[in-house]
């Protein structure tokens, strides 16, 4: 097992590098970039260039951009490629390109970026004028909170529910819970989030829960137990939104996995030997049926943690990694965009390895070294 894990870890490097190379190459052809947007703003809105400093990745600001949340992008080429440059002093255009780092060839910028990534140095955001690591650390508690609690609750609810539905297949309990599961599966998560806001967060009816943030203002001065309660109060509706959208699929997966194992010959043999139903279920069936559920855990965790939380973060005004990555992609803030891609991909690859390792914990009979 040790040799297998070592080989998988070695494969992480070329896989991660290939993903970054492909995405870096694709965005070079994306229309609209930080230089083009800045020049269009200067030309179209009549703004004056307030300050341009290009040291260490640079900072480009206008009077308007200094007040707003920056938008960023990246396209490369000669000055004439930027439509917004028409009518502007070429020296100003060249200085803006230098400040954003687009005066260098794409290959040079890629090598410099990957060299920094080896030490988790992601540079500075093009328009936020802050280190990317600082932005990631600031947004991470929101995404970790949503992903951790949602995944924990989904598994704690779905696995026991799926097992009971499999054991009582066709009963009234199975039919009734199937209706609930289908409703949860059919309603989009963002729609359920909006309904919760309307009915429980002061939208039009009750105001039992807060609408934004992880803690109330001044919560840092409260005792630990009061901060914990305040945190749970803020996380209740976002977590419920994530759970409703995620538990349906896992419940049915668990049920079908157990039903498949219940119908196999070794189960009939175990009953013929006089084993109790509990012994058969948890001593024989459980270990085999859980393998399929464990196989989907890494993908489910990554989906909940980063992609599934995006709309939830928007509806409940939670400024997390999902929202940060989405805004960076739209605004083409290259340092932030590629840093989030790097972190998400690295975590996803590591979670796949963790999933393989968990296989052996559930069923020691599995030997990855013996596979041909």
Automatic annotation (TrEMBL):
Q: How does it sit in the membrane?
A: Multi-pass membrane protein
The signal peptide annotation in the UniProt record is none
Q: Which UniProt keywords apply?
A: Cell membrane, Membrane, Transmembrane, Transmembrane helix, Transport
What are the transmembrane regions? Answer: 9-30, 142-163, 175-201, 231-254, 289-316, 336-362
Q: Where in the cell is it found?
A: Cell membrane
Give the primary localization class: membrane
InterPro entries this protein is in? MetI-like, MetI-like_sf
Example of a GO cellular component annotation carried by this entry:
plasma membrane
> Where are the stretches annotated Disordered?
51-79
The ABC transmembrane type-1 domain extends over 140-355
GO BP, sorted A to Z = microcin transport; transmembrane transport
Recorded hits in NCBIfam families, A to Z, give:
PRK15133.1
The entry assigns this protein to a family as follows:
Belongs to the binding-protein-dependent transport system permease family.
Q: What is this protein called?
A: Microcin C ABC transporter permease YejB
What organism does the record attribute this protein to?
Answer: Neoroseomonas soli
Give the classification, highest ranks. Answer: Bacteria, Pseudomonadati, Pseudomonadota, Alphaproteobacteria, Acetobacterales
């Amino acid at each position: 097992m040790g040799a297998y894990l070592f080989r998988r870890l070695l494969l992480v490097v070329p896989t991660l590098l290939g993903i970054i190379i492909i995405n870096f190459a694709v965005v070079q052809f994306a229309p609209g970039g930080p230089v083009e947007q800045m020049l269009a703003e200067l030309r179209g809105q009549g703004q004056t260039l307030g300050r341009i400093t290009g040291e260490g990745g640079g900072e480009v600001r206008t009077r308007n951009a200094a007040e707003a949340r920056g938008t960023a992008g990246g396209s490369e080429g000669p000055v004439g490629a930027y439509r917004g440059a028409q009518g502007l002093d070429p020296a100003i255009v060249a200085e803006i390109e230098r400040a954003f780092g687009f005066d260098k060839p794409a290959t040079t910028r890629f090598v410099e970026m990957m060299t920094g990534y080896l030490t988790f140095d992601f540079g500075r955001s093009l328009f936020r004028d802050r280190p990317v690591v600082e932005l990631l650390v600031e947004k991470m508690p929101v995404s970790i909170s949503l992903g951790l609690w949602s995944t924990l609750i989904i598994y704690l609810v779905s696995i026991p529910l799926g097992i009971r539905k499999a054991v009582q297949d066709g009963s009234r309990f199975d039919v009734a819970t199937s209706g609930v599961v289908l409703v949860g599966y059919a309603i989009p998560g963002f729609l359920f989030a909006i309904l919760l806001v309307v009915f429980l967060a002061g939208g039009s009816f009750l105001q039992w829960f807060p609408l934004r943030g992880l803690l109330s203002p001044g919560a840092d001065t409260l005792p630990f137990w009061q901060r914990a309660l305040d945190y749970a109060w803020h996380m209740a509706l976002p977590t419920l939104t994530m759970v409703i959208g995620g538990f349906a699929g896992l419940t049915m997966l668990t049920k079908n996995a157990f039903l498949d194992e219940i119908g196999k010959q070794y189960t009939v043999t175990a009953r013929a030997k006089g084993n109790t139903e509990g012994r058969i279920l948890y001593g024989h069936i459980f270990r085999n049926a859980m393998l399929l559920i464990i196989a989907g855990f890494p993908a489910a965790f990554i989906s909940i943690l980063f992609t599934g939380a995006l709309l939830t973060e928007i509806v409940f005004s939670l400024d997390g990694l999902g929202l940060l990555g989405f805004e960076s992609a739209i605004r083409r803030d290259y340092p932030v965009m590629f840093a989030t891609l790097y972190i998400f991909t690295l975590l996803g690859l590591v979670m796949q390895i963790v999933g393989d390792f968990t296989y052996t914990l559930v069923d020691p009979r599995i030997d990855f070294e013996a596979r041909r």
